[in-house]
Specification:
seven-stranded mixed sheet, 19% strand, alpha/beta, 3 domains, FAD/NAD(P)-binding domain, 17 helices
């Protein structure tokens, strides 16, 4: 007889692997099914150009929850996060360079504005306090607003009590972060345009919104909650690329008894009498399970993997209303040397951190205007890192890989299609960097251009949205992904969501996978 698993996890991205590890740790016989030949989902390392290994999609880590690192003992399984030192913003004839050395950054800001140098420290302290206040919500199970249980309100009550004890200025700042645009929020603190633009960039990552759009201040806070070794707003590069994160989690899951299969695409979730009973692979193989967890997004789970008449029409409409609006692209470059910026020549320490092409608020907003009109941004916002300066193993000796995260690249183009415009998009990204580092073009020995359509095709992310759905305020907490179904459960008994489509959202965080697994385990305990 065919084996029946206690749990099947669809998708071997980092969230799916986290769920599998926690379930296996609790003694459940768990199987992970990954459609691609490599694990990690969007947190994956691949050799695209011979000898050059890239973090193909996700490229930095900060949001990975410390409790997951601790519970799964990930350093023992190879996880090592190398610090990313600061952000360098190249300009015409000048630059802005913030580093992890606070005193050095204050001196740099004083060169631009004494007022901003003073405000920077106060702003940083405030954002740390905001991150500490909101951090507990990352581990909460959202309240069911349709069928509320008073017991589920207890954590929110604690959060409300904490809010009531905050100084009035912090209360006001929190409300502003929930409602304002990133640009307007930062305008209250700073006057230096490149500083505001570079900081505001954190508010638009993975959203089809501009820096002046209300709601982007929250996205800024979402990214500020990242921490490494207890330091908020610290970012790092995993040794071996972001695939190193996924492989460490996979190693932990295997050590706990989970089985992981690659090249095993799921065609359908099996449902009988309103209950998930397993999956059918594209090969035709049927696998039974007591519980099925899906780490793929809500559209993929509900509208592709289930038979059309499985769900109520109203629920399907809610799923269709869930907004993705992919807006990001990625350009990965294999280089024969290092870029030389005209504003700060040479291969100095400024190349070891992030390089942000965000010279001003108007520049950033114009990039968004291009996207609203159905065009990729001709002069986009680009976040660049050269991980080989921190981890030389990613390329042959003396050579480098350059990772370029790009906004904006709208999934829906007004004219033509992405297969026609892919290379033109890649050229626009390279041209924008060459304006500040003229030698770059001659260094390129290979490149990979990922449009939102490529991201959708490769990683099964609907519309290429890197967060499995926008992190807009109406799609957070108890509304993510559908009101009344934000507690990781679905309308199908024993079918759960465990990816970024559910609370608390996207990034290499692992929290959705962990909370979903804990909820599954809780649901299977005998009633007291």
């Amino acid at each position: 007889m065919a084996q029946t698993w206690d749990a099947i996890v669809i998708g071997g991205g980092h969230n799916g692997l986290v769920s599998a590890a926690y379930l296996a740790r609790a003694g459940m016989r768990t199987l992970v099914l990954e459609r691609r030949h490599v694990l990690g989902g969007a947190a994956v390392t691949e050799e695209i150009v011979p000898g050059f290994r890239f973090s193909v999609a996700s490229y930095v880590v900060s949001l990975l929850r410390p409790e997951i690192i601790r519970d799964l003992q990930l350093p023992r399984h190879g996880l090592e996060i190398l610090p990313l030192d600061g952000t360098f913003t190249p300009l015409d004839g000048d630059y802005l360079w913030r580093t992890n050395d606070h005193a050095q950054t204050v001196r740099e800001l004083r060169r631009w504005s004494a007022t901003d140098a003073e405000a920077y420290e106060e702003y940083g302290l405030l954002m740390v306090e905001m991150a500490r206040f909101i951090k507990p919500i990352l581990s909460m199970v959202p309240v069911d607003t349709i069928r509320p249980d008073p017991r589920d309100l207890v954590p929110l009550g604690g959060l409300a009590r904490t809010f009531s004890t905050l100084p009035r200025r912090q209360q006001s700042a929190f409300i502003q972060l929930m409602t304002m645009s990133a640009a307007d929020f930062l305008d209250q603190w700073f006057e230096t345009d490149p500083l505001k633009a570079t900081m505001a960039a954190s508010g638009i990552i993975g959203t089809f919104l501009g820096v002046r759009s209300p709601g982007t201040a929250y996205v800024l806070l979402h990214h500020y909650m990242g921490e490494i070794d207890g330091a908020f707003r610290a970012w790092g590069i995993p040794r071996g690329g972001t695939g190193g994160v996924s492989e460490s989690i996979a190693s932990a899951a295997r050590s706990l008894g989970a089985e992981i299969r690659t090249e095993a695409p799921v065609a359908r979730i099996s449902v009988r009498d309103g209950r998930a009973t397993g999956v059918v692979l594209e090969s035709g193989e049927e696998i039974s399970a007591n519980v099925v967890l899906s780490s793929v997004d809500a559209h993929q789970t509900f509208l592709r993997l289930l038979e059309p008449d499985t769900l109520e029409p109203d629920f399907q409409e809610e799923v269709r209303r869930y907004r993705f609006r992919g807006s990001s692209g990625k350009v990965n470059l294999a280089l024969d040397g290092l870029p030389d910026f005209t504003c700060l020549p040479g291969s100095g320490e400024h190349l070891r951190g992030a390089m942000s092409f965000s010279p001003g608020i108007d520049y950033m907003e114009q990039a968004y205007v291009d996207a609203k009109e159905g065009r990729f941004s001709r002069r986009p916002y680009i976040d660049v890192i050269i991980p080989t300066l921190v981890d030389p193993s990613m390329a042959p000796p003396g050579r480098h890989v350059m990772s370029c995260f790009v906004q904006y690249a709208p999934y829906e183009l007004a004219d033509g299609d992405w297969d026609e415009q892919r290379e033109a998009f890649g050229d626009a990204v390279v041209d924008t960097i060459v304006e500040r580092a003229p030698n770059l073009r001659d260094l390129i020995v290979g490149r990979q251009v990922l449009t939102p359509l490529d991201i959708e095709r490769t990683f099964a992310l609907t519309e290429g949205n890197i967060f499995q759905g926008e992190l807009s305020l109406e799609q957070l907490f108890f509304n993510r992904p559908v009101p009344g179904h934000a507690r990781f459960r679905t309308p199908i008994r024993d079918l759960w969501l465990c990816g970024s489509a559910v609370h608390p959202g996207g990034g290499i965080m692992g929290a959705p996978g962990r909370i979903a697994a804990l909820q599954v385990l809780r649901s299977r305990r005998p009633a007291a």
